[in-house]
Specification:
Distance between the termini: 32 Å
Structural class: alpha+beta
Radius of gyration: 21 Å
CATH topology of the largest domain: Transferase(Phosphotransferase), domain 1
Number of domains: 2
Family: Belongs to the protein kinase superfamily.
Keywords: ATP-binding, Kinase, Nucleotide-binding, Serine/threonine-protein kinase, Transferase
Shape: globular
Protein name: Protein kinase domain-containing protein
Oligomer: single chain
Strand content: 15-25%
Number of strands: 13
Number of helices: 12
CATH architecture of the largest domain: Orthogonal Bundle
InterPro entries: Aur-like, Kinase-like_dom_sf, Prot_kinase_dom, Protein_kinase_ATP_BS, Ser/Thr_kinase_AS
Order of helices and strands: EEEEEHHEEHHEEEEHHHHHHHHEE
Subunit structure: Monomer.
Strand order of the largest sheet: 3-4-5-7-6
CATH superfamily of the largest domain: Transferase(Phosphotransferase) domain 1
């Protein structure tokens, strides 16, 4: 059921939700932002560094071309990304402040990561000192634990999808396009997605998966931070796949202390049930010593479900057209009404919009297409760190 015209904000304005879920005064319009530069580009559009003219606040504006999204059949994936980022609120997850849309484009206003991608940082630094790796690992595990407390599985954890903020290099997860929410009815999923070197054995074997695939990827991440290479860097794709399916990797003697070694081995267990649970990961002395949260990440996991387990309410947003940010032809706001009733206009799945309603398992299997073999198998989603401030564009 669509919202009445009277309930919509004026063209070009965005409403923010107050603490009680109601609307407050109109807030952002696209015309209020000036472009400072380009952070990255991809098949769907660009990520720009923008400044709010009145406040001077810096953001990353992710701009996506609707036609490209539809042509590649990724509208369900994009809808999932927007809904998830509107729903989650955690210091280790990149915040989506607002979204806007016009007839041909979708705009997402995100936190600006002033220190770029973890991927670029690892390429520049090589092997990380254990204290630094512990801090980044703790941040990532904390954000992941919050998602899991909401029964959300990220499914594409990798350095490219972790952004860094401030002098302290706080890590935050981004790019929620492949995430999925598990339910009692659907406690596992079957979609083949992710990045080859980070994909868990059960997914490569074609078995159903749950949040255990994120635990596996977390183990790969820790290994890569401390050894500057993947644990499954085979000479060819088949060798890499065989090693992953067998959970076959080597830890050179003396390459890391006992703490991270325990975590790597515990997370890279072949069987999902044998992997170290996130609660235990966060309570591990090596991780707990690096925890930067106020009260400890491990104690906050259960609170996440209580605070934000309700599905976010998202208002309908009629596409108004328009050709430039100077025109008042854009709309977009934070959650205000039932997503189940209204949905998102920018991702309307009605027949008239030309968008399909593919289920989670109907999303095209695109990200694991191997481009070429080499010392480290190159996968399309394993891209260079060109998008440094607001998440990569596929």
């Amino acid at each position: 059921m669509a919202r009445s015209e009277a309930s919509r904000p004026p063209d070009g304005q965005a409403l923010r939700a107050d603490s009680k879920g109601g609307n407050t005064l109109p807030n952002y319009t696209l015309s209020q932002f000036s472009v400072l530069g380009e952070l990255g580009a991809g098949a769907f559009g660009v990520v720009q560094k923008v400044v709010h003219q009145d406040t001077g606040h810096i953001f990353a504006m992710k701009i996506m071309d609707k036609e490209q999204v539809v042509q590649r059949g990724l509208q369900v994936q994009l809808k999932r990304e927007v809904l998830t980022q509107l729903k989650v609120k955690h210091i280790n997850l990149v915040r989506l402040h607002y979204y806007f849309e016009e007839e041909t484009r979708i705009y997402c206003l995100l936190e600006f990561a002033d220190r770029g991608q973890l991927f670029a940082y690892l390429r520049a630094e090589g092997i990380l000192p254990e204290p630094r790796a512990a801090s980044l690992f703790s941040d990532t595990a904390s954000g992941l634990a919050y998602l899991h407390s909401l029964r959300i599985v990220h499914r594409d954890l990798k350095p490219e999808n972790i952004l860094l903020f401030g002098e302290e290099l706080r890590a935050k997860l981004c790019d929620f396009g492949w995430c999925v929410e598990l339910t009692e009815k659907e406690a596992t999923r079957n979609t083949f997605c992710g990045t080859l070197e980070y994909i868990a054995p059960e997914m490569l074997m074609g078995d159903p998966h749950d949040d255990g695939i994120d635990l596996w990827a977390l183990g790969v991440l820790l290994f890569e931070m401390l050894l500057a290479r993947s644990p499954f860097a085979g000479r060819a794709k088949k060798e890499t796949i065989d090693d992953i399916c067998a959970a076959r990797f080597e830890l050179p003697p003396g390459s890391m202390s006992r703490g991270p070694e325990q975590l790597v081995r515990g997370l890279l267990a072949r069987e999902r049930v044998a992997r170290t649970p996130l609660r235990e990961v966060l309570r591990h002395p090596w991780v707990a010593a690096a925890d930067r949260s106020d009260s400890g990440a491990a104690t906050q996991i259960s609170e996440g479900r209580q605070l934000t387990s309700k599905v976010p309410e998202v208002s309908a947003s009629a596409s108004q057209g328009g050709t430039s940010c100077q025109q008042s032809a854009y709309v977009g706001w934070q959650p205000t009404t039932s997503a189940a009733e209204d949905g998102l206009a920018l991702l309307d799945t009605s027949a008239s919009s030309g968008l399909n309603t593919a289920s989670d398992d109907g999303v095209p299997f695109r990200v694991c297409e191997v481009v070429s073999d080499g010392p480290r198998p190159k996968v399309r989603s394993r891209r260079s760190p060109s998008s440094v401030g607001g998440g990569a564009i596929t």
